[in-house]
Amino acid sequence: MEGVRGPWGAPAGSGNLARVSDPSMPLRAKLASSVSRTAAALSRAAGRGDGSVIGGWLGLKIDPDLLAHLASGREIALISGTNGKTTTTRLTTAALGVRGEVATNSFGANMPTGHTSALAKAGTTPFAVLEVDEHYLAQVIRSTAPRVVALLNLSRDQLDRAKEVAMMAQLWREALAASPDVRVVANADDPMVVWAARSSPHAAWFSAGQRWTDDSWVCPECGAPIARPAADPAGVSDWHCTGCDLRRPKAGWVVEDDGVVDPDGRWHKIELQLPGRVNIGNAATALAVAAEFGVRPEQALGRLRRVASVAGRYAQVERDGRRVRLLLAKNPASWLEAFDMAEEAPTLLSINARDPDGLDTSWLFDVDFAPLRGRDVLITGDRAYDLAVRLEVNDVPFRHVRTFADAVRAVPPGRLEVIANYTAFQDIRAELDRVL
Ligand SMILES: [Zn+2]
Asked: How would residue 11 be classed by pLDDT, with cut points 50, 70 and 90?
């Protein structure tokens, strides 16, 4: 589906890899690693997903230090944040491919079990780029001793977890302060991220915007309001705390038009198959991380262009003369990003409220759907009626359709944008796979 794949299945790498399969790796770790790989393969063979969770879980049961053993000898980047980490991990993996084979947890298994499984499968790749769930970042920093940690953003994910934003920033802050050798690449536009990252002596800043500001009105240091003069639609503003010295640091990497300015002041055009300014920001972040490994932007740009989809997201499929594109929106911040990515075309919104989505849909009222005014909007999903109420209040006309297939029939040939939350996205993907 895309140009640069995960390391397994890719051709064997160059000669400098022996240090990873270090013969001094303890016997227990070797055994655990082997069991982890076998279990993952069995799970895949049984048709139960890619097996990375069960494989990693078994490996860690046998050797709790397995992740540390597997990480040893590799140069590693960790990518964390609430939104964009799967895509940024994918793009960073592509960029770092300039240096050699790169291991990654490309199936979105972003907890230590998934990391363990990805590295156990990866053999002797000298590099790894790992997406890390924000709750596990401190633990994974300790286990993997990464060279670089990228911090994208922090916002509420599900309503019942809203209070955790400041707590999470505090955990990140402590983890980075305890690992002063780690280089941090962090978003200057997110006050929570800046507060966490400035505990590191090696922070490099990028500016990728912050569309969702509702979780960072108040300074995490002193509690005073954050001022955001002249914020643009991408949420870029020279923000500062009105009560203490917390303020936006000067960013070395800045998204400008359809490209990025690097720390030397050179502008690079970023051409992607992935849509929207949000992904230009993700690509700029990937370039900033890769630069910490000695990769120059001009070496990596062609590789970024070849990434066509990420775990089914942004995938474009043809159906009955409609070009259907799937966008995942899992929390308020990512809805705003999806509106940025979607073209001016008929747009289907699909909302479920099953366990992985969170059962409470009142977050719909936190999202401003006004950017959809003037488009042909269709709605579906288990909780289409909750969405209907929200759109009514937001003054966005819409049509309700019962199924995805009905939506396809209801729009003229041409582009159909689909924005769906987690299980709704999976349902539509499954339906497309069945039909195609
Ligand atoms: Zn303050």
From this structure: very low
